[in-house]
Design brief:
The chain has about 400 residues and is α/β, with parallel strands linked by helices. It is about 55% helix and about 15% strand. The protein has 18 helices and 13 strands. Helix 4 runs parallel beside helix 5 and helix 10 packs across helix 16. It is globular and about 65 Å long. The protein starts with a helix and ends with a helix.
């Protein structure tokens, strides 16, 4: 071994022994959760690592230094809905970029939020900062145009679905399948009775959960229809309990929407606790997004729905590459649960679909068992030690910068 190789190995060893600084950006509640699980793995490897950037409450509980809060990045739809906040978002991104280039971290990890993170990663990478993108953008669903941007932005992509690394490799992008962190967190066999006890719900009887989203704009477009559908469910099955988790900052707004729908005193609205609610329910009306995968991992029947501004809907439809929108259907390659989107998401249609599941839980258990079996197989496929696999991949990226 020559002196040059020896010096390189010494430099790499020194880089790995020193606690790194890890810059991260996570948008919204789902990104905060994913990033917090990643931080668990990174802190096992480097207990004294410094983590900085944009994050939420769960990241901060793990020592993350949030220069801005995750919820500042939350937007919904396209067109003027985003344009109304574009100056603020661009201003935050510019300040963050300048700060990170002036004081480069060991690595930058963009957690989801591709509209914000990919552009930031491109600039940081051009400045010599190693970049990792956690959660491959849905190039296989409706954003195929993003592939070139990902190639420019990321030194490495951490993928949460098993088919993604091969797809990225076809475009010359290095990637690692790390499993979906939620599959590790959510138990294979959720305890329905314990969840109901925690929420103060009766152990027996039907429970319908309403999850209209974690963004303010989602709640405004979706929640009213969900509550009106729940009212129709109660007319058909009066003993059904209705429960809805709300992001704490939106709890009062959700309460108001429920009251406007005539459901103010007929629904239990809790702050957070979405996993307890999913574990407790027999069926959920749920907004398309990460929460639908959570519901699948809890093995719960669901009706997936989504509503947005009509112009935003038209733009999204043009980008759609698959017949499914909900993650459980995409991953299973079939309509295993119903999807009611935009104009189809009437209270009457939502109630009818929910009643189908609720009645099946009483009268046709084989129907529910078949869905549980399918979701259990999906759970096993997604279950990996995500925190450790992701931390190991990031460690290699940090070591490569010392090469």
């Amino acid at each position: 071994m020559n002196s040059s190789e020896t010096s390189k190995q010494i430099a790499q060893a020194a880089a790995q022994s020193v606690a790194p600084s890890i810059a991260m950006v996570a948008g919204e509640a789902s990104g905060d959760l994913l990033a917090s699980l990643l931080l668990d793995g990174l802190r096992q490897r480097w207990p004294d690592a410094r983590s900085i950037g944009i994050g939420g409450a769960q990241m901060q509980s793990r020592g993350f230094d949030a220069w801005w809060q995750s919820e500042r990045l939350a937007v919904h739809g396209y067109s003027w809905e985003v344009l109304a906040r574009v100056a603020e978002l661009l201003g935050i991104r510019k300040k963050l970029r300048q700060r990170l280039i002036a004081h480069p971290p060991s690595v930058f990890v963009g957690v989801d939020a591709p509209d914000f993170n990919l552009g930031l990663e491109i600039k940081l990478r051009e400045a010599g900062v190693k970049t990792v993108h956690f959660v491959c953008p849905s190039i296989w669903a409706w954003r195929a145009d993003r592939i070139e941007k990902i190639r420019r932005a990321a030194d490495h992509v951490l993928c949460i679905f098993p088919f993604e690394p091969e797809l990225l490799a076809q475009h010359g992008i290095e990637a690692t399948y790390v499993g979906h962190p939620l599959a590790q967190v959510i138990p294979l066999h959720p305890d329905r009775a314990a969840a109901r006890a925690k929420l103060g719900l009766p152990e027996e009887g039907l429970v319908l959960a309403l999850l209209p989203g974690s963004r303010r704009s989602e709640v405004r477009y979706i929640a009213s229809g969900f509550f009106k559908a729940a009212a129709l469910v109660l007319k058909a099955l009066p003993a059904t309990k209705i429960v809805a988790p709300a992001v704490p900052s939106l709890w009062e707004e959700v309460q108001r929407i429920a009251a406007d729908a005539g459901m103010g005193d007929k629904v239990l609205i809790v702050k957070g606790q979405s996993h307890d609610v999913l574990a407790a329910c027999d069926c959920t009306l749920i907004a398309s997004g990460t929460a639908t995968l959570e519901a699948a991992l809890f093995k719960r029947p669901m009706v997936i729905s989504y509503s947005m501004h009509p112009w935003s809907w038209r733009l999204m439809q043009r980008k759609q590459l698959q017949p499914w929108v909900g993650l459980p259907n995409i991953l299973c390659g079939d309509f295993v649960v119903p999807e009611l989107l935009q104009d189809a998401a009437t209270p009457e249609a939502l109630a009818k679909a929910a009643l189908g599941w609720l009645r099946a839980s009483q009268d046709s258990p084989v129907t529910i068992e078949a869905l549980v079996e399918r979701f259990t197989a999906l759970h096993h496929e997604l279950r990996r030690d995500t925190a450790q696999l992701a931390a190991h991949a990031i460690e290699k990226i940090i070591a490569s910068s010392a090469a």
